[in-house]
Amino acid sequence: MTAVGIDAVEIWTGKLKLDLAETFAPEMGDDPAKYTKGLGLEGSSFPDAYEDIVTMGANAAHRLMERKDLDPDDVGRIDVATESAFDNSKPVSTYIAGCLEQVYEGDFHHANKGERKFACIAGTQSIDDAYNWIKAGRNRGRGAIVVASDTALYARGDAGEATQGAGAVAMWITENPSLVELSTEQGYGSADETDFLKPNQQFPSVDGKRSVQVYLSRMREALEDFESVAGETHPDDYEYIPFHTPFPGMVRKAAVLGYRHMIRGTDAEEALTDRIGPQPRRDDFDSREAFDDAIRDYMDDLKETEEYREWYGETIEPTLSISSQVGNWYTGSVHIARMSALRAAAEAGDDLTGDKLLVGSYGSGAQAEIHEETIVDGWEEEALATNIDEQIERRYDISFDEYEQVHDRHNHDKRTELEPFTQPDGEFVFDGWGPMNERK
Ligand code: HMG
């Protein structure tokens, strides 16, 4: 069977940075550790005045096409995953194709273009669409560009404000890929939930605390569903486990539950029971509250064991480095988690060809999906090719007053004028609602 997967990835961060400890926490009257330790976030990325989901997506896709030496004729699909779309008729992929046509001789008239929406999970669903299209033999030798692009903004004063972010990830999906091959097995956990909604509004209405519980429940269902087709999983089966990362603290919660589930029935479970006792059982408690408290204490003890800390440090921690600097990118989030880990491994000179990833995607509303990926020959070169570290470093550090102006500028309902803080450098820019997204 032909291998199908992700051949290459390019990442584009919004060019502005809000420092959560230095700039945001003092204005909120909060201890900076709430953000840096509690949520696990150092900073958020924001788009400059001339950036939006189209320019960030087009710039990431352009870098991808240049690096992989692609012409429009090589591309059979352009799919964009976003929950920040501004057009209720045509997909954002048509705007991005329009940008790219300014710099290539050919055009994308032959390419199928679409837009996927299901909060953060839409990027993974777009990869699935490309995978199925190639596997079905409908691709005529062409590959698919999948772009995940979002400006993840919350209303000012909302608890989610500290988790904002903006950026795009462009991925090239092909036969015989050079980064990761996707598994045929997938697991899902999906339910009609109302903890995070944007009914005809730009900023979400969020029940933050509940959204954390919904994430964990759907992710648990997806893992169980995945195991029902792929067989039981074990924490040591995977080199890395990239999760959807709204903030690293969320992944800390998901990881400990996933680990506990995956070690059941193994020697690791026996060793754990010897150390911290058996997992509490509901039947042994009079009330739900008492049982929940006991489970919380048990999980806290588990997190402190040497075995867990070592596993977490090797398998989860490396997936969080980019997101701790840029915040939540919604659809792009799990894809920067994968690249964080692979980049760190490539820089360390690790040999991972043939090793596995377990990838946990999630979107509010809600759906989780879990699949496996196999790291393939060529991955080091691909992982090192993105310049995301330099981009993160180069961001302009905004003051709180500037942050408020930037937030207003990117509020679709009341777009305000704003002088840019940075200069475009040979890239697509948003130039107002006339002839849009010129290259400057
Ligand atoms: P909050 O309620 O302001 O924060 O916002 P908190 O009081 O819960 O504190 C956060 C953590 O910091 C806690 O840790 C505190 O203990 C700790 P935890 O107990 O949870 O482990 N803390 C400190 N630690 C050290 N030193 C200190 C300190 N102070 C506090 N001094 C909340 C948290 C998640 C509610 C908020 O960020 C929010 O509403 N976020 C938006 C929703 C969200 O991200 N949900 C995540 C799951 S849903 C999802 O991932 C989908 C999403 O990406 C959307 C989509 O799908 O499109 C959001």
Automatic annotation (TrEMBL):
It comes from the Archaea. CDD domains: init_cond_enzymes. Coiled coil: none annotated. One of its GO terms (molecular function) is hydroxymethylglutaryl-CoA synthase activity. One of its GO terms (biological process) is acetyl-CoA metabolic process. Residues 3-175 form the Hydroxymethylglutaryl-coenzyme A synthase N-terminal domain. The keyword Thylakoid does not apply. Keywords: Acyltransferase, Isoprene biosynthesis, Transferase. SUPFAM superfamilies: Thiolase-like. Residues 195-418 form the Hydroxymethylglutaryl-coenzyme A synthase C-terminal domain. The keyword Transmembrane helix does not apply. InterPro entries: HMG-CoA_Synthase-like (IPR053544), HMG_CoA_synt_C_dom (IPR013746), HMG_CoA_synth_N (IPR013528), Thiolase-like (IPR016039). Pfam families: HMG_CoA_synt_C (PF08540), HMG_CoA_synt_N (PF01154). Belongs to the thiolase-like superfamily. HMG-CoA synthase family. PANTHER family: 3-HYDROXY-3-METHYLGLUTARYL COENZYME A SYNTHASE (PTHR43323), HYDROXYMETHYLGLUTARYL-COA SYNTHASE (PTHR43323:SF2). This is Hydroxymethylglutaryl-CoA synthase.
